[in-house]
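Two proteins were folded this term; both appear here.
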Amino acid sequence: MAAPKQPQARMSPSDIETYASYVKGVDPARYYDSQAREFWLAAKARWPLLADVLYPDQPPAAER
């Protein structure tokens, strides 16, 4: 395995970006990050009013 391109690879925001730093030719923009989606859904459940204000095009938290 090659050394990561970034000196602080452990601080990468997602597993996909970390993997791409180790493997040549991997484009992180081509992969879906389910981890980020899970964090986003958990935040919407924890702070429904804030989610309603920041994302007005989504259904209200009470209807989810």
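Next, the second protein.
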Amino acid sequence: MTDAISGLRIQQEQNVGNNIFPKILTIEGNIGVGKTYLGSELAKALGYKVMLEPVAKNPYLDKFYEDPKKYALKLQIWIYRQRYRTYLDAVHHIITTGQGVILDRSVFSDKLFADANLLEGNITREGYDHYIKLRTQSLSKLPWPHVTVVLLASPIMCSTRIAKRSRTCESAIPLDYLKLLDAGHSSFLQDMKLTHTKLVCMDWSSFGTARDVLKQLEVVGATPWPDDIGRGTLLMARTEAAIRNALFVANPPIEAIIEDDSADNNSVFEAEQLLHDRERAAANERSNNNNNNNNNNDDVNNTEVVVKTVPNFACADNVLTPGEVDKALNMTANVSLPTMTTTSSTSTTASPVVQSATKRRLFSQSEQMALETN
């Protein structure tokens, strides 16, 4: 482990100024905004590994949409633990292979779903406090994602896209719930401001391209992790007992008790990849059919008029700079969300991970030079 980190660090110190070291890049945004397709396209361009959000084998998702009050906390805890394990897998992959990773949502944005469910009465205050205790103790052991890309589109637009992709479990998602998630991103952005992640905000109301995002990634750069964080996280990723300890909270409420989730994530990723491949094939078929219809009706203007709404997080030039983060947080919807911190109800200081010095570098191997060629 030491040899891997030391070797990677040497090369990273040579390349960090050029922003060409392997990174964890997370793609965030509301349900249906278009995270998965963008993630796969960026992974192709950068030569990164993509890790998808668990949906296909989630034992609580269908039950939650059928009976939110009974299954909201179970779903929240199960997904949080899956996202936590996935993030550890991403850290392990980067350090041991030198290949970057793209995550379709991450454990860092998980809280906005808990906030929404608390406001809707699906999660009790006791259950919410249990979740926050779990989140606080476990996140303190993780390094930040190097780059966080936030895709922005109105809740109405996301609802329309959800309907088009025809996932049975998502058919009952109400628009009001999407509005709560949309507003909840203000809390998420505030949390991420306490880390060293680079925030990139993209207006995705009429979709964009991987090329658009790559141009912004070239601008914002990234901050490498300190050595001690990398070593500690890599060790924990290799030790099931350490993972279980990080995710253990004593005396959970009954509604927080879930099935064991320590199975190998590979089967989850494979099932999820198959699901998304099928969805993409169906989308391509619809697109080809639309193109054929347009070719057969040259005299008819079939161009869809998309009304661009101003997202809650309006960003100059689509890049969320530090100053613009503050501006964005003041522009969010008028929804009162629970005040959350990373330590306690009265503290707003960053976790020990955030406060760690970043003088020494962890990574070393260069990523593919896609930013120059795309």
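The longest strand covers residues 24-29. The domain at 2-291+318-366 is CATH 3.40.50.300 (Rossmann fold). These notes refer to the second protein only.
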